Amino acid sequence: HLAASLPLPAERDHLRPRIDMIVFMIDIKSKYSLKNVEASLAYVDASFFLGKVCFLVTGVGRVNCCSIEMNAVWKLGETYCSPVLFCELEVEGIRVATAQRLLRMLQICAGHVPGVSALSFSSLMRKSAND
């Protein structure tokens, strides 16, 4: 399910499926994109930041067109203890690899991978980013 921003409309709350993971997409070419994500974060329950949130930054192949400083994106990930993934949607191989990575993260967040919790997965992601 996709939403342009949070909070989600309440009128269909009873029909909404369980939310296992939230992926915030940030378009590196749009300052509005980052501001929208920052505004939406206030509506996310704190328990989601224990491994069930990630930030997906798109458009990274066009660094000369950036409207957002990379430090702002990294700081967002650090502040919310959430992984930051980078992707170029226009390159099929990168797009497919990112989709597979997100699917694996979702499987873990939904509890479909025995022996791995979203919390332990999140700490592994942070450790690998620091290495």
The CATH first-level class comes to: Alpha Beta
Q: What is the number of domains? A: 1
Order of helices and strands: EHEHEHH
Using the alpha-carbon principal axes, give the shape. globular
Share of helix, binned: 25-40%
Number of helices: 4
Provide a descriptive summary of the structure in words.
It holds the Pfam family CENP-M. It is found in: Chromosome, Centromere; Nucleus. This protein has helices spanning 31-40, 70-79, 92-109, 118-130, and strands at 22-27, 53-58, 84-87. The chain has a single domain, classed as P-loop containing nucleotide triphosphate hydrolases (Rossmann fold, 3-Layer(aba) Sandwich), CATH 3.40.50.300. The chain has a three-stranded parallel beta sheet, sandwiched between helices. It is built from four helices and three strands. By secondary structure, it is α/β, with parallel strands linked by helices.
Which structural traits does this protein have?
131 residues, alpha/beta, Rossmann fold, 3-stranded parallel sheet, 3 strands, 39% helix, 12% strand, Centromere_Cenp-M, P-loop_NTPase, nucleus, Centromere protein M, centromere
